[in-house]
Amino acid sequence: QLQLVESGGGLVQPGGSLTLSCAASGFTLDYYAIGWFRQVPGKEREGVSCMSSYGGITNYADAVKGRSTISRDKAKNMVYLQMNSLKPEDTAVYYCAAEKSMFALCELSQNEYDYWGMGTQVTVSS
After folding, report:
1. Which CA distances in Å does 22 have to 42, 43, 66, 94, 117?
2. Would you state the pLDDT for residue 103?
3. pLDDT of residue 33
4. Residue 101 CB partners (closer than 8 Å, separation 6+)
5. Which pLDDT value is given to residue 57?
6. Is pLDDT above 90 for 68?
7. 91 three-class SS
8. What span, in angstroms and rounded, lies between the C-alpha atoms of 44 and 124?
9. How far apart are CA 44 and CA 21, in angstroms?
């Protein structure tokens, strides 16, 4: 059974850093694109970053470009999102998602992803 579990969220001060983790089970990352999304109450879920199957291609939303890095540990079947210089507007529930894909691309549209984790809360506040 394919499962995604996020962790690493919490309360962080503005300007701080956080690394979110996404543990994948029931499938191999090599065959799936992985996306990170976030959502605040009353707003649509928005794409933050993604990585293509085999990890060759990464994309970032303009809002986090230059402040975030997506990476993966193939041996652990884990995907990470490191976020630096956090701002209060980064406060959201962060989700990881997976889409079976053999293409060297990934999308920041939630409609492309079939499998989702339950999310982890990130709060940026002093």
Report:
1. 24, 23, 21, 10, 8
2. 82
3. 95
4. 31, 32, 33, 52, 53
5. 94
6. yes
7. coil
8. 19
9. 22
Structural contact between residues 20 and 83, judged by C-beta atoms closer than 8 angstroms: yes
Predicted pLDDT of residue 29: 86
Rounded to whole angstroms, how far apart are CA atoms 5 and 94?
A: 11
DSSP state of 119: -
Helix (H, G, I), strand (E, B) or coil at 53: helix
Burial of residue 117 (CB within 10 Å: 0-12, 13-18, 19+) is: buried
Residues 15-67 have pLDDT tens digits of 999 999 999 999 888 899 999 999 999 999 999 999 999 878 999 999 999 99
Show the tokens assigned to 85: 């210089």
Rounded CA separation 87/76 (Å)? 30
d(CA 119, CA 77): 18
Mean pLDDT (whole number) for 75-101: 96
Residue 110 CA neighbour count, 13 Å, CB half = 13
Instruction: Tell me how far apart the alpha carbons of residues 104 and 21 are, in angstroms, rounded to a whole number.
Output: 22
Structure tokens at 117: 């984790």
